[in-house]
Design brief:
By secondary structure, the chain is of the alpha+beta class. The protein has helices at residues 43-53, 141-150, 168-172; strands spanning 10-12, 28-31, 57-62, 76-82, 84-89, 95-100, 104-107, 113-118, 123-128. The strands form two sheets. A six-stranded antiparallel sheet has the order 1-2-7-4-9-3, with helices on one face. The longest helix is centred in the first third of the chain and has 11 residues, at 43-53. The termini are far apart. The mean pLDDT is 95.
């Protein structure tokens, strides 16, 4: 039995709000219940194996910061292993989205995100493609100016973190 469910990506784009640049070229991609965690004794490991199998690494296990932030030099994927959260994507003028166990969200460089609320059992697995460099930006004017220059230079990943080199993300980010 496959642990990956059919991909029906939901996309969102967010405009630069003057503080959070977001990404003018690439949409946020949300896969609802993309990883079947039913019956898994270790959903964290299942998500980590999935991301690693498709070349996404530098993984972390945690929650989501309660303050708005973004990464201007790398894309990020977050897989929900346990619990649920409401996350504001896109900065103050963005959108609150509920995410639950099995959901995967791929954030293009520049996309603001912050946790609005969560269940006590929330565990998120985060990872990054092999190209790019991790940084944490909090929305200062000097960061914003640098980010506008850096974001277009971040290379698109060669593999979807859930579905591999022929996954929906690849087509969506090349259109």
């Amino acid at each position: 039995m496959s642990t990956h469910r059919a991909a029906h990506p939901i996309t969102h784009t967010f405009k630069d709000d003057g503080t959070i640049p977001n990404n003018p070229e690439l949409p946020l991609v949300l896969y609802r219940r993309a990883i079947d965690l039913a019956g898994s004794p270790d959903p964290e490991k299942l998500i980590e194996k999935t991301f690693a199998a498709h070349g996404w690494g530098d993984m972390w296990r945690n929650g989501i910061y309660p303050y708005v932030h973004y990464h201007s030099m790398i894309h990020e994927v977050m897989g929900i292993a346990r619990g649920r959260a409401t996350v504001r994507f896109g900065g103050a003028k963005g959108r609150d989205i509920d995410i639950v166990a099995g959901d995967v969200v791929v954030l293009p460089a520049g996309t603001g995100h912050q946790r609005v609320k969560q269940t006590e059992d929330l565990v998120v697995i985060g990872a990054y493609p092999p190209s790019g460099k991790y940084n944490l930006c909090r929305g200062s004017k000097s960061e914003h100016a640098k980010a506008l220059n850096a974001i277009p230079k971040v290379p698109a990943p060669t593999s979807d973190p859930v579905f591999g080199p022929k996954g929906p993300l690849i087509a969506l980010w090349r259109e």
